[in-house]
Amino acid sequence: MTHIAVDIGASSGRLVIGDIKNGKLTIEEIHRFANGFTERNGTYYWDIDHLLTEIVKGLAYAKTLGVKRCTLGIDTWATDYVLVDQEGKRVQEVIAYRDKRTERTIEKITKHISKKDIYEKTGIQFLSFNTLYQLYEEKKENLEKTKMIMTVPDYLGYKLTGCAVTEVTSASCTQLLNVKEKDFDQDLLQLLSIEREQFPPFSYPGDMLGYVRNEYFPDYDLPETKVIIVGSHDTASAVAGVPAAEKNWAYLSSGTWSLIGIESDTPIITEKSLFYNYTNEWGVFGTYRFLKNIMGMWIIQEVRRHLTKDYNFAQMVDEARKAPPCKQFINFNDQRFFNPDNMVEEIQKYCRETLQPVPQSTGEIARCVFTNLAILYSLSIDEIESISGRTIDSLYIVGGGSQNDFINEMTAAVSRKTVFAGPSEATAVGNILIQLIAEKKLANLQEGRNLVLNSFSIKRFDPRESGNEALKEQFKQAVFSWICTEY
Ligand code: LFR
Q1: ipTM of the predicted structure?
Q2: 310 pLDDT above the threshold of 90
Q3: Atom 11 (ligand 1): residue with closest C-alpha?
Q4: Phi, psi of 85 (to 5 degrees)
Q5: Vertex 221, ends 219 and 222: CA angle to 5°?
Q6: How far is CA 33 from the centre of its chain?
Q7: 234, 310, 382, 405: which one is catalytic?
Q8: 157-198 tens-digit pLDDT
Q9: Quick check: CB of 363 below 6 Å from ligand 1?
Q10: What is the pTM of this model?
Q11: For a substitution probing ligand 1, which of 44, 46, 235 has the most ligand atoms within 8 Å of its CB?
Q12: R_g of the chain computed on alpha carbons
């Protein structure tokens, strides 16, 4: 039996075949496609039908490779949703979370229920685009036609199999789940005028969803495909794929977003975690991901889009290395960097406003992005240690961003922690691990993580004798003195 991970992020999607061969986990990407949101009349949309077609195309390609039977797991980004009517049809175009409609919605909602109450109920960080805020801004006539509200991976699974569920790792990011009651929160649903029944029944990583209904796709020759529920939220899958075997580790899932945190058996909901805006997203097998969203590679993706499409990311890293040390402190977690019209201009404007040298060349800008992200990462590690009371010895960086040695070195130097980098395909790997556990080829997650550790080359970055710790304090002082938002 072959296992296939469908992993779709904000900028691309892929189908990856994975299995255990001679005691090692092997993965092979068989199909890749672009993803991205586009603007129409001031609103940003995903093309969800395109994503479904690409999954089916990838499956058909797997058949040409000789795959007759397989399991399949789907993970995507979180927080966006699809409304489905009585006939199983989509009610709306799927709006992307970087859309501007929810810019002020946290303020509106917290007039009805306080921030503290929402946080105590859900344990989820306040991000302007959580489903709670998006549904608040949804057109009433759309909600009236809605029989089922689904996250993106659940919708894709539904379109393939006809089976509708609410997978919990993705659902927790809606900020609508009550962490004590382990169900949708009635007060929050009431505020949105949504009924509990509009969400399909819960399902958990390792459950079976159903078989792909090949008759839905008469134009394609598809294998017999059993869809398994994995950590449908890509970050849940990425963290499942972290090759950590010891205690005291933190992770950084580095892609469009940088998600930095620890795995915990219980949610951590305190005044301090609310103050620093940490989240308790539900992970696979009853774990919680206590983490913070940092703006991440989105910044450099946008810089590249506006400045220098000729360079690939490796070249941008090279340019950064060649540039002189960064002279700017920039709080990239400021909301102004969430979706500016032009990222390069926004960075330069910030520097002008804060009376700092303005970076000009690709190398200067890239260096300034990577350095400031490394500082944000290490500040976050300090916060996690202080909030959780745990000591962190090492940071596991996984995902596409883990290939950036420059930022890995900087992070080790500033944080004074040992950094391990890889695998870059941790999300697909974590997705496959859950399928292997469901198929009883692996006993549990730790066995899976040990397998990852023995199967991929993981790079190690040790903190230098004299690190760049001072940068953190200088950054904090600078950012606070400019009265920018709390980093
Ligand atoms: C990463 C991610 C993050 C989530 C953001 C938006 O791809 O899933 O975990 O906060 O995208 O959904």
Answers
A1: 0.99
A2: no
A3: 77
A4: -90, -175
A5: 120
A6: 18
A7: 234
A8: 999 999 999 999 999 999 999 999 999 999 999 999 999 999
A9: no
A10: 0.97
A11: 235
A12: 22
